[in-house]
């Protein structure tokens, strides 16, 4: 997922605090301040780490990953559970973070900054899946066929939700959608029934699907 760096479990790196430019006597804060204020020392080390990472230092990028990978993975796991895409999502979070290093101002800790990226990444995925799953449940109901009246109790919720969403479609679009997905008719058969050109039927079916996607996303 990451183009220039492959992160492997157990692949250790040397701490960046020993790199040139990050030792005592460098930066705006004095060594005395760093020694007497642990928080200031941490901020100084964090700034040095980020500056090196911005410059493309591979060891600095790797250290950020190794220090925070467990945090990012744990948060994603709590949100999504056991997910086949979890490894990819971890890589996506760090890819986005490294691409946005120039926008990291240092006002918050790196861990806080990574949490924001993780939350945004997972939120978008959860929302997309929620909408997709609802649409799939609705479409599945309309594809049950003429035996829908004998639908099993487990299908009732999907049926009710599908019908509620369908009720918001424009009547002409709803008609085409039901004939095609619920009744299982072909476009030509529908064209013959409503006495409209085949191209009109296809266009209305496309518009119906588009409206349904919009209704699901707004709901």
From TrEMBL:
<dbReference type="GO" id="GO:0006352">
    <property type="term" value="P:DNA-templated transcription initiation"/>
</dbReference>
<dbReference type="InterPro" id="IPR007627">
    <property type="entry name" value="RNA_pol_sigma70_r2"/>
</dbReference>
<feature type="domain" description="RNA polymerase sigma-70 region 2">
    <location>
        <begin position="64"/>
        <end position="129"/>
    </location>
</feature>
<feature type="region of interest" description="Disordered">
    <location>
        <begin position="18"/>
        <end position="42"/>
    </location>
</feature>
<dbReference type="InterPro" id="IPR013325">
    <property type="entry name" value="RNA_pol_sigma_r2"/>
</dbReference>
<comment type="similarity">
    <text>Belongs to the sigma-70 factor family. ECF subfamily.</text>
</comment>
<dbReference type="Pfam" id="PF04542">
    <property type="entry name" value="Sigma70_r2"/>
</dbReference>
<dbReference type="InterPro" id="IPR036388">
    <property type="entry name" value="WH-like_DNA-bd_sf"/>
</dbReference>
<dbReference type="InterPro" id="IPR039425">
    <property type="entry name" value="RNA_pol_sigma-70-like"/>
</dbReference>
<feature type="domain" description="RNA polymerase sigma factor 70 region 4 type 2">
    <location>
        <begin position="160"/>
        <end position="212"/>
    </location>
</feature>
<dbReference type="GO" id="GO:0016987">
    <property type="term" value="F:sigma factor activity"/>
</dbReference>
<dbReference type="InterPro" id="IPR013249">
    <property type="entry name" value="RNA_pol_sigma70_r4_t2"/>
</dbReference>
<dbReference type="GO" id="GO:0003677">
    <property type="term" value="F:DNA binding"/>
</dbReference>
<dbReference type="InterPro" id="IPR014284">
    <property type="entry name" value="RNA_pol_sigma-70_dom"/>
</dbReference>
<keyword id="KW-0805">Transcription regulation</keyword>
<dbReference type="Pfam" id="PF08281">
    <property type="entry name" value="Sigma70_r4_2"/>
</dbReference>
<keyword id="KW-0731">Sigma factor</keyword>
<keyword id="KW-0804">Transcription</keyword>
<dbReference type="InterPro" id="IPR013324">
    <property type="entry name" value="RNA_pol_sigma_r3/r4-like"/>
</dbReference>
<protein>
    <submittedName>
        <fullName>RNA polymerase sigma-70 factor</fullName>
    </submittedName>
</protein>
């Amino acid at each position: 997922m990451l183009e220039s760096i492959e992160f492997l479990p157990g692949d250790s790196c040397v701490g960046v605090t020993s790199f040139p430019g990050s030792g005592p006597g460098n930066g705006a804060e004095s060594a005395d301040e760093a020694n007497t204020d642990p928080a200031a020392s941490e901020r100084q080390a964090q700034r040095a780490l980020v500056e090196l990472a911005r410059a493309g230092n591979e060891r600095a990028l790797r250290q950020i990953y190794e220090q925070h990978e467990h945090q990012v993975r744990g948060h994603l796991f709590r949100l999504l559970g056991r997910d086949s895409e979890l490894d990819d999502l971890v890589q996506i979070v760090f890819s986005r973070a490294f691409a946005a290093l120039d926008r990291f101002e240092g006002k918050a800790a790196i861990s806080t900054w990574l949490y924001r990226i993780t939350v945004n990444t997972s939120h978008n995925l959860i929302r997309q899946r929620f909408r997709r799953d609802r649409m799939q449940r609705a479409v599945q109901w309309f594809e049950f066929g003429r035996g829908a009246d004998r639908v099993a109790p487990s299908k009732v919720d999907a049926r009710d939700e599908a019908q509620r969403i369908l009720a918001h479609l424009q009547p002409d679009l709803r008609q085409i959608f039901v004939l095609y997905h619920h009744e299982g008719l072909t476009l030509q058969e529908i064209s013959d029934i409503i006495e409209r050109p085949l191209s009109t039927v296809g266009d209305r079916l496309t518009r119906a699907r588009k409206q349904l996607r919009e209704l699901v996303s707004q709901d």
